[in-house]
């Protein structure tokens, strides 16, 4: 498939807009109104990566450790995560996804997957193939980001 020539500036602007709109649509599928997007992101990381220290979670979420400490405390208060002593370092804790947090993540992922699967079903096989080919590039862009907010 031949694509028209497009400048890097135009591509970055159009891609950014498309991603923002997709993210907004996916956020619109949210099931739980109990947790914030920041809390939901931390729960999702724990769901995918498993138990970790608060520092590792802050790094994975690209936030400062004091911010993650507040997120973990609020999720703990909601019964969505638990904090256990680190097995080898008494100064550390291990944050684990609790059953309640796992239930929230499962419901959120199911709702997003259902919506996105319906949108993908509307595409032609070639369009889906193009998206599949772009996926590693998108992952490279997002995994290569070093900015901490």
**What is the number of beta strands?**
2
Helix segment tally: 6
* Overall average residue pLDDT: 90
- Helix percent reads 55-70%
**Overall geometry:** elongated
Q: What's the gyration radius in Å?
A: 18 Å
Largest sheet: 2 strands, antiparallel
Strand numbers in spatial order across the main sheet: 1-2
Quaternary structure of the protein:
single chain
State the order of secondary-structure elements, H for helix, E for strand.
HHHHEEHH
**Low-pLDDT runs:** none
End-to-end separation = 38 Å
CATH architecture of the domain at 34-132: Orthogonal Bundle
Strand residues, percent:
5-15%
The CATH class of the domain at 34-132 is identified as Mainly Alpha
CATH superfamily of the domain at 34-132: Winged helix-like DNA-binding domain superfamily/Winged helix DNA-binding domain
What fold name stands as the CATH topology of the domain at 34-132?
A: Arc Repressor Mutant, subunit A
Which structural category do the helix and sheet elements fall into? mainly alpha
Describe, in plain words, how this protein is organized in 3D:
This protein has 149 residues and is mainly alpha-helical. The chain has a domain at 34-132: Arc Repressor Mutant, subunit A (Orthogonal Bundle). 64% of the residues lie in helices and 7% in strands. The protein has helices at residues 8-27, 37-49, 54-61, 65-77, 99-121, 125-143; strands at residues 81-85, 93-97. It has a two-stranded antiparallel sheet. The chain starts with 7 loop residues before the first helix and ends in a 6-residue tail after the last helix.
């Amino acid at each position: 498939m031949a694509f028209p020539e497009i400048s890097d500036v135009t591509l970055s602007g159009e891609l950014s807009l498309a991603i923002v709109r997709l993210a907004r649509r996916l956020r619109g599928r949210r099931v739980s109104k109990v947790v914030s997007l920041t809390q939901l992101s931390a729960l999702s990381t724990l769901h995918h990566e498993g138990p970790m220290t608060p520092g590792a979670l802050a790094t994975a979420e690209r936030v400062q450790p004091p911010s993650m400490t507040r997120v973990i405390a609020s999720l703990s208060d909601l019964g969505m995560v638990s904090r256990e002593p680190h097995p080898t370092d008494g100064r550390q804790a291990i944050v684990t996804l609790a059953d309640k947090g796992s239930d929230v993540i499962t419901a959120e992922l199911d709702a997003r997957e259902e919506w996105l699967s319906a949108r993908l079903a509307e595409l032609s096989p070639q369009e889906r193939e193009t998206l599949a080919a772009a996926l590693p590039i998108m992952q490279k862009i997002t995994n290569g980001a070093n900015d901490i907010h």
